[in-house]
Amino acid sequence: MIKIANAPCSWGVLEFGLEGKTAGYAQVLDEMKEAGYAGTEMGDWGFMPTDPVQLKPELAKRGLALLGAFVPVDFSDPAAHAAGAKSALRVAELLCRASLGKPFVVLADDNGKHPVRTKNAGRIKPDQALSDDQWKVFAEGVDHVAREVLRAYGLRTVFHHHCAGYVETPAEVDRLMQMTDPNLVGLCLDMGHYRFGGGDPGQALQRYAARIWHVHFKDCDAGIAAESRARKWDYFESVRHGVFCELGKGEVDFPGVVKELRLMKYDGWIVVEQDVLPGMGNPKECAARNRSYLRELEL
């Protein structure tokens, strides 16, 4: 049975260390529950309590499942792999001790830290991609971290492609899937990032059905995406202008996506994410409207 969650990034809680005030974890969890969600991802390390004795009851009293946590690693730098594994293991331990289910470690590139990729998010050219040697380093790092997490805690790992990182375009997602171990690394398919990166999420669902272990529902506003390309906004400026809009208001074909998920008998979580910068908009109202939209799709 597909269940619906949300994530702290919908409240502007992002991993980039941006300026601006965001709500505390208690308010975010309260509003998430009030908006009709059954689970959450953990958000950036330290946003929620990192002591399972404190975190577990905070989730339980709201009836929220903990289903994953985002771990960014600069996989293009081999010197960063050991620290990345240590970070992932720290997160995995907390997930195991604070969750009742089998949550995912959600790996990603250290997005927003590479100037060329951040500046050109949504319009990446082939000459801005990793070299063959860099791809080998990158993929080996992903496999290494996933292997360590599985060995130590028995948790599965998914990789989250992301604009402003080195795995953004459909070709880059495809290459990572080809170069990583399918027994170790699944794909967290994010509909909005895949669309902004130039891909068709429905086609990705068909192509990677066996590797899609986790799903993020995010929409992409076609007009703002086009304006971003024309004005050459960087990633953060695109987000600030609302490129990731409310579900059903962008160009992602969510009825078609839901149909594909049901055809592939997907029975995991759908995590709604509407990435906003700290202080943007009214996250609770957006989250409620996004949940209502999914109910219209019988989710």
Share of helix, binned: 40-55%
Average pLDDT across residues?
A: 95
**pLDDT below 50 for ≥5 consecutive residues: which ranges?**
none
How many domains?
Answer: 1
Task: Round the Cα radius of gyration to an integer and report it.
Answer: 18 Å
CATH architecture group name? Alpha-Beta Barrel
Largest sheet composition: 8 strands, parallel, barrel
The secondary structure category is alpha/beta
Q: Count the E strands.
A: 8
Give the count of helical stretches: 12
- Work out the oligomeric state of the chains in this entry: single chain
How do the helices and strands follow one another from N- to C-terminus?
A: EHEHEHEHHEHEHHEHHHEH
Overall body shape: globular
CATH fold group: TIM Barrel
Content of β-strand: 5-15%
Specify the CATH class: Alpha Beta
Question: How far is the first residue's CA from the last residue's CA?
Answer: 10 Å
Strand arrangement across the biggest beta sheet: 1-2-3-4-5-6-7-8
CATH homologous superfamily name? Divalent-metal-dependent TIM barrel enzymes
